[in-house]
Amino acid sequence: MTDKLTGAAGRQYVTDAIRHSLRSGDLVPGQRLVENDLAESYGTTRSAVREALQDLAAEEIVEIVPRRGARIRAVSIDEAIQITECRSALEQLCAMKAATQANEAQRTELRRIGTEMRQAVADGAVHTYSALNQRLHELVVEASGQEVARRQLERLNGPMVRFQFRLALRPGRPAQSLQQHLDIIDGIVSGDATAAAQAAAAHLNDVIEQLRSSAATSSTPVPTRR
């Protein structure tokens, strides 16, 4: 019998696995999280699962309901907008610092991501573009060396998953955001901190506008039969 992960290792493994499942769309807002099922799926003890869920609840990714267990917390569009406003400030800082701190390997990877993003848009490969988008944002933070910002962004990004997926998969959205991402890449690769920060601000401002558009659409009254 394979030993189950316990203690701090099991707790961290479950936490990371749930975050990954959210990013990949395997878990969705409102979905119940059953301790026994998660322990079996991840090869950990129930106590490791319980502790991981408590950690994720502290990050407001999971909601623990008395007598009903845990579930993925749903985020309103208003909250998503506020989260994105906070992300914008942090990502501008990271882009600015990455422009001066990135090493040559990171600049090379940024160029590669830009090339592959162009190709993904040309091919209509929405999911490929979404994955490249995620890697781009991660790489900008890595290249910045701003560990405090990285931790805060990780916490902020968790509840945003359903909105990120909704926006990324909208028809025409990759083509619309492509130049925004390329501008971020160009600013960092060229070492222009001001341009990199401005490009990050422009991109996140556009995300906010897209979220506001979603709010307007979702609030449109549905005709009723009379």
UniProtKB/TrEMBL annotation:
Q: List, for all copies, the residue spans of the domain called HTH gntR-type.
A: 8-75
Q: Which InterPro entries match?
A: GntR_C, TF_FadR/GntR_C, Tscrpt_reg_HTH_GntR, WH-like_DNA-bd_sf, WH_DNA-bd_sf
Entry keyword annotation includes DNA-binding: yes
Q: Name one Pfam family in it.
A: GntR
Q: Which UniProt keywords apply?
A: DNA-binding, Transcription, Transcription regulation
| Highest taxon above the source species | Bacteria
User: Known SMART domains for this protein?
Assistant: FCD, HTH_GNTR
Identify this protein by name. Answer: GntR family transcriptional regulator
- Species name: Streptomyces glycanivorans
